[in-house]
Write a structure and sequence with these properties.
about 180 residues; mainly alpha; Ferritin
Length: about 180
């Protein structure tokens, strides 16, 4: 069984992943309401990805005999001043997640919980991709701020974040 400190931190991160999914769904819905279908689709996909990350963590805890604890999550931010602000918010969120995942990794290492360290390592790699995707999207959004439909064209053309499934990704609970 994983170290209890790791279990507690991972349970907290499960809530954070569900909160990120909730936030991305809210962003997607706002983009859809504002008739930005490509941005909406991108963020709906990001929401599903964050939910899948949470379910991977749930599966790990279940597989190792640790207790899964679900806690409340905060309501997502809904007030954005323009079409670029949600992307900036998403990048800040990804940077925060990267920091938390690093802390969880460090905790596993300090506890000499090598199986948990190995499990969380995949998420470190994933966060590099997540931050890069959001950073690039923000750069493009800022560049074409006055022509938001150019951002829609970019997403349609480049499909950011839409790479193939990672064969080394942890299994998600429920086959998610």
């Amino acid at each position: 069984m994983p170290a209890q400190a790791f279990v507690d931190a991972l349970n907290e991160q499960i809530a954070n992943e569900f909160a990120a999914s909730h936030q991305y769904t809210a962003i997607a819905a706002q983009y859809e309401a504002d008739t930005f279908p490509r941005l909406a689709g991108f963020f709906y996909a990001q929401a599903l990805e964050e939910r899948t990350h949470a379910m991977m963590m749930v599966k790990y805890l279940l597989d190792t005999g640790a207790k899964v604890v679900f806690t409340a999550i905060e309501a997502p931010r809904m007030d954005f001043e323009d079409h670029v602000a949600p992307i900036r918010h998403a990048l800040e969120q990804e940077r925060s997640v990267s920091q938390r995942i690093s802390e969880i990794f460090e905790l596993a290492r300090e506890q000499r919980d090598y199986l948990s360290e190995q499990f969380i390592q995949w998420f470190l790699k994933e966060q590099v991709e997540e931050e890069a995707t959001m950073s690039e999207l923000l750069e493009i959004a800022e560049r074409v701020r006055e022509q938001p439909m150019e951002l829609e064209k970019y997403i349609a053309r480049e499909n950011p974040g839409g790479g193939p499934q990672d064969q080394f990704a942890p299994e998600a609970a429920g086959g998610a």
